[in-house]
TrEMBL record:
Its EC number is 3.1.3.16. Transmembrane segments: none annotated. Its cofactor is Mn(2+). The lineage of its organism: Eukaryota, Metazoa, Spiralia, Lophotrochozoa, Platyhelminthes. The keyword 4Fe-4S does not apply. It is an enzyme of class 3 (hydrolase). One of its GO terms (molecular function) is protein serine/threonine phosphatase activity. This is Serine/threonine-protein phosphatase. Belongs to the PPP phosphatase family.
Length: 243
């Protein structure tokens, strides 16, 4: 490791320590961090290979203290490999701190953490990317119109065909509130993982993460909201359409 890399890593470690205390970086620091992240992410594949063992996480939605609880339950990075499936911002009080910490961890430990794009990370309104990020599993077979107004619903037959065509055994996805933190559907062809406990500070749900070992055997960890020390009070009710 060169002296420059040592200095760069030391700076990143300082930023991560600051963010772990829920303290924002300066605007200039965020710009520098984003440039470093852009350089790393631009070299990754659209379908990125992930090494096991790995812990798979769903939506966190700006609930910073619950993200810290997730790391307490699942293990700190880089001791634990992580795959985050998007939806880092919105709803919670700490979107900036949450997404900045995840990006900083990606830059510092690029081979130990994978961050995917969710439907809250970009203004995607149409086309294949919209369908990929907005569609939900459904009890009815075939394709259906999504009540979200974007994407589609897909039935068990669609999930089974997709898995068979792509030599897969499981679709792990996020993007949807499930009360126990994870939920199987389509005869275990699909699992939904949701990692924001008590979503929008009113839903009363648990959060979940999925651990995959070297042999691709899975297990789930569930957790409740972190203590709300110093967090601002809810001053207005979250509209139901956000749920």
């Amino acid at each position: 490791m060169t002296d420059f890399q040592k200095t760069e890593n030391k700076e990143l470690d300082q930023w991560i320590e600051q963010l772990n205390d829920c303290k924002q970086l300066s605007e200039n620091q965020v710009k520098v961090l984003c440039e470093k992240a852009k350089e790393i992410l631009s070299k990754e594949s659209n379908v990125q290979a992930v090494n096991c063992p790995v812990t798979v996480c769903g939506d966190v939605h700006g609930q910073f203290h619950d993200l810290m609880e997730l790391f307490r339950i699942g293990g700190r990075s880089p001791d634990t490999n992580y795959l985050f499936m998007g939806d880092y911002v919105d709803r919670g009080y700490y979107s900036v701190e949450t997404v900045t910490l995840l990006v900083a961890l990606k830059v510092r430990f690029k081979d130990r953490i994978t961050i995917l794009r969710g439907n809250h990370e970009s203004r995607i309104t149409q086309g294949p990317m919209c369908d990929l990020l907005w569609s939900d599993p459904d009890d009815r077979c075939g394709w259906g119109i999504s009540p979200r107004g974007a994407g589609y619903t897909f039935g068990q037959d669609i999930a089974e065909t997709f898995n068979h065509s792509n030599n897969l055994t499981l679709i792990a996805r996020a993007h949807q509130l499930v009360m126990e933190g994870y939920n199987w559907c389509h005869e275990k062809n699909v699992v939904t993982i949701f990692s924001a406990p008590n979503y929008c500070y009113r839903c009363g749900n648990q959060a979940g993460i999925m651990e995959l070992d070297d042999a691709l055997k899975y297990s789930f960890l569930q957790f409740d909201p972190a203590p709300r020390r110093g967090e601002p009070h809810v001053t207005r009710r979250t509209p139901d359409y956000f749920l």
